[in-house]
Design goal:
By secondary structure, this protein is an alpha+beta fold. It folds into two domains: 303 residues, 2-methylcitrate dehydratase PrpD (Orthogonal Bundle), CATH 1.10.4100.10; 125 residues, 60s Ribosomal Protein L30, Chain: A, CATH 3.30.1330.120. Helix content is 51%, strand content 9%. It contains 22 helices and eight strands. It has a four-stranded mixed sheet. The chain has a two-stranded antiparallel sheet with strand order 1-2. The chain has a two-stranded antiparallel sheet with strand order 3-4. The longest helix has 21 residues. The mean pLDDT is 97.
Length: 455
């Protein structure tokens, strides 16, 4: 028999998670956790309107167990497992979900769908839901931060399973001993995800986050039934499988005083995060142009210099709306043609627009290694547009909008909530949902609250 004593860092994590109360969170962490929940729900609803998601809801629910959890944006209810799967999958479709450079991915959309669904199923309080999301986010982000996951691995569907599991376990009031088994089990229940899905515009990538929620909830069920995990699964998975480097000390460094959730970003553009840096540079450029618009027929070329992860998104032969969200040339071209960024600039009609496609071909995107060296503390990009007469305009981004040192304002996030929610639910329901989520800590029974909202 092997020694079943867990390593000290895991014991520390588990004891912290099991003992934590809402008052242990900093004011910033509580506020950000509330916004992560509030931002995620209308993002899921908007993604649920995609034809593939509508078809998946019909086919999946035909054989799923009945339940009380929202299938957000579908007007349906399901058991927590199925709701977490569907909501997590819809949540990344439009590329508007929250993310975190310190966590190296998107923790929120992997944790929130599972936690919300379970809170509805068992009637948790809003305060318990808030705490569960913050802890699931924090522990999983710390494990991701401690590793150097291979660039070929997409971060969705990996450490998010741990986050969803911890959030669910907190709602179920797991002991420290159960929490250790849970983390060790959940760590090995992630997927072998491929970053190439982004470059290929492959929508199978969206199931990765749905998988996190589903398997996170399944992990708690396994522990409740007596299943056990490895002695130190995070070190195995993140030190040998997905990554060759894992630093346990970094997992617990600053635990309880440094909250990674406060370092997250929210997205106002429906694109991959690294595209946002180039959009910010374009905005800076257009601010220097008289009238803020350029006649695209006069553009000879667009020169973009960027850090490596942004420079990788260089595809020009875009054939789908989903693929358009991961192309810097397409994003710049479509925004210049349409005059703004928004869902319509990345829909099927935009992809079919010959003017957009032709302009994308005139974008030269290259990595600037000095910019890469400054990442992730900064996300530098320059965009230079040269007109046919020789006149040129240049703009730059140093820190992408939405990052902690360059944050979006609350009114911008509120506008996003209503812009996405109202077309799905109408003004009255959207307002009631928003008001409830803004006072989440005061909700005594989240199931009762949810029962009054047909999402």
């Amino acid at each position: 028999m092997s020694d079943r004593r867990p390593p000290e860092y895991l014991t520390t994590l588990a004891e912290f998670a099991s003992a934590a109360v809402l008052g242990d969170l900093s004011d910033g962490a509580r506020d950000r956790a509330r916004w992560v929940i509030a931002d995620s729900i209308p993002v899921v609803a908007a993604g649920m309107q995609q034809p593939e998601m509508k078809a998946l809801v019909v086919k999946h629910l035909a054989q799923a167990a009945p339940g009380s959890a929202w299938v957000v944006g579908a007007g349906k209810r399901a058991a927590a497992l199925d709701a977490a799967l569907l909501n997590g999958t819809a949540g990344t479709w439009l590329e508007l979900d929250e993310g975190n450079l310190s966590a190296k991915g998107h923790p929120g959309i992997q944790v929130v769908p599972a936690a919300v669904a379970l809170a509805q199923e068992i009637g948790s309080s809003g305060a318990d839901l808030l705490l569960a999301v913050a802890l699931g986010y924090e522990l999983s982000s710390r494990i991701s931060r401690a590793a150097q996951v291979k660039l070929s691995v997409h971060p969705h569907g990996t450490y998010g399973v741990i986050g969803a599991a911890v959030a669910a376990a907190k709602l179920k009031r797991f002991s420290a001993a159960q929490m250790i088994e849970l983390i060790n089990s959940a760590a090995t229940m992630g997927m072998a995800t491929s970053r190439q899905t982004l470059l290929d515009g492959a929508t199978v990538r969206n199931i990765f986050t749905g998988h996190s929620g589903y398997m996170g909830l399944m992990a708690t069920r396994l522990i409740e039934c007596g299943f056990t995990g490895e002695i130190d699964s995070p070190a195995t998975v993140y030190g040998k499988v997905l990554s060759d480097t894992f630093d346990p000390a970094k997992v617990i460094d600053g635990l309880g005083s440094e909250w990674l959730i406060t370092k997250s970003y929210f997205k106002l553009h429906p694109t991959g995060r690294y595209v946002h840096s180039t959009i910010d540079a374009l905005d800076d450029l257009l601010a220097r142009v008289p009238g803020g618009r350029i006649d695209v027929a006069q553009i000879e070329r667009i020169e973009v210099r960027a850090y490596m992860l942004a420079a990788m998104l260089a595809g020009k032969n875009i054939v789908s709306s989903f693929g358009a969200r991961f192309s810097v040339p397409f994003a710049l071209a479509s925004i210049l043609v349409h005059g703004r960024s928004g869902l319509k600039s990345f829909d099927d009609a935009a992809v079919a627009n010959p003017q957009v496609q032709a302009l994308a071909q005139r974008v030269d995107l290259q990595e600037d290694k000095s910019f890469t060296a400054r990442y992730p503390a900064e996300q530098p990009v320059t965009v230079r547009i040269v007109l046919r007469g020789g006149v040129a305009y240049e703009g730059r981004c140093v820190v992408t909008k939405g990052e902690p040192t360059n944050p979006h304002q609350p009114e911008e996030l509120t506008a996003k909530f209503f812009d996405l929610g109202e077309p799905v639910w109408g003004r009255v329901v959207t307002t009631k949902l928003y008001d409830g989520l803004m006072r989440l800590q005061a909700i005594q029974d989240f199931r009762a609250f949810a029962d009054g909202l047909p999402l």
